[in-house]
Amino acid sequence: MKIAVLAGGVGGSRFLSGLRDAAPDADITAIVNVGDDMWLSGVRIAPDLDTIMYKLAGVNDEERGWGRVGESERVSAELREYGVGWPWFTLGDLDLGTHLARTHYLREGLPLSEATKLITQRWKLGVTLLPSTDQEVETWVKTAEGEMHFQEWWTRHRAGIPAQAFINRGVEESIPAPGVETAIADADVVLLAPSNPVVSIGAILAIPGIREALRSTDAPVVGVSPIIGGSVVRGMADACLTAIGVETSASAVAEHYGARSIDGLLDAWLIDTLDDGTDLPGITVATAPLWMRGSELSAQVASDALALARSLSA
Amino acid sequence: MKIAVLAGGVGGSRFLSGLRDAAPDADITAIVNVGDDMWLSGVRIAPDLDTIMYKLAGVNDEERGWGRVGESERVSAELREYGVGWPWFTLGDLDLGTHLARTHYLREGLPLSEATKLITQRWKLGVTLLPSTDQEVETWVKTAEGEMHFQEWWTRHRAGIPAQAFINRGVEESIPAPGVETAIADADVVLLAPSNPVVSIGAILAIPGIREALRSTDAPVVGVSPIIGGSVVRGMADACLTAIGVETSASAVAEHYGARSIDGLLDAWLIDTLDDGTDLPGITVATAPLWMRGSELSAQVASDALALARSLSA
Asked: How far is residue B30's CA from residue B33's CA, in Å, rounded to a whole number?
């Protein structure tokens, strides 16, 4: 079974880890958001790709929720002493190893997808990671205080400055990375991970060609709601929804994605047992507990998403 | 008193440290070789500038002879795990902080001289460090096995592959960094540190304009021999001399630099008590112990070089 998953960082990493457990024989391809990526001091950071890689490699810091376990910050402490660096951005030493490996390949002229392939070879991930695009399409946030990179808005300002819009800089000139459209077209199931619908999934869907690939694949497209009990699991994502005029509710997010039969993307939508979303024309809705606290619960969510997909063709 | 010093890495760093001790009130400008500089994984390495900075800042590793004291290699261990990196090049974590600070400024579009100014602000060096040029003029080594960057030849192959020539790539298009020519012109004394005459001092002299500045300054130009008892202090430098057809002796190096009165650079030449170099037309020669083992001996060498300079105008 071939499964293609659109995914962002933390939510995506947990979902993919659960999916790997739930479908150990499946050929899973993750199409990963790159909108959070940025150049920091000449080094290319790709937070979502790395978060997913670390989680699937089992070297992520579960306690902290991000980055590598056993991390240190000797390099960034030096950078701060030199007056360089971002007090709001933690650049761990082990993590920096990944950034430098990526930067090495990029500066050699390889595209991000090739760099990602070479970097992920180190681990046995059991999931193929593809960046959504090889172009540098970064998400910027329009605010009353000016435009800033999403990372700065999210990490430095904790999404506390009202966002007026999210801009996918350079998206018009971008194309899906090699393998992305094929993965969607050839999939038996396409899943939208319970990632931020705006700046994770939305940034992937903004790449010209990806929305079309989702609409034209023969596979069922099943979304997993990132909302639990009318709240986002990861605190600040509601600020993103609010900015684009979408209510923080499972049904509003589903309507935002839209039904595939009426110009949208979803065939089915898995929502939490606490949420309401049964009245969504053109979308088959199922409910299940969606809180991915621990690997067993994550595998169950993935399993429920696959069951929902199967029910569509039954 | 204004002193300008042409300097390479380890020998230059010891000599400059001694000079700062010997002339605490002097305004010392070091014009530092950048031929060893290179891009590694998209990060700009400048070994000579850093070796001098660490030594003058008192954070160098005296025991190892290079790099930062208390160094670790967590990042480069990661890089190796990813299959990236140079087993022959040690990229310490603290050192990497310096490289990343420099890369940060360079990627922002600042020239190396500005980056160096900003980076050295962290420490109280008591010496102004100027790169010889802002352009990327890297020293490459021509061998029977092809051309390779000096770092690779020196650090990886331990200068063991016979060098046929040293090539200062891009030197024709380079100009001295801002302040270099003025420092030489305005100096009361110009010193050539006991650094490698070929790939350190030679690479500085290859920058168009620097040789002319030395020849036209009103200040006496005093060289300190890097030879002690017919040997180079730092093992492999004789391979560089051999490659350019210069004997490893104090007088041969002086002849290589030449007397200022006959198209060369030197007014005076300080040689070790073990060496012979009294018969050098146009060059005033003095002898003194030149082994800079420890700060007192280094200060004495610098003091003797200054005394030799004074003797010229007496």
From this structure: 10
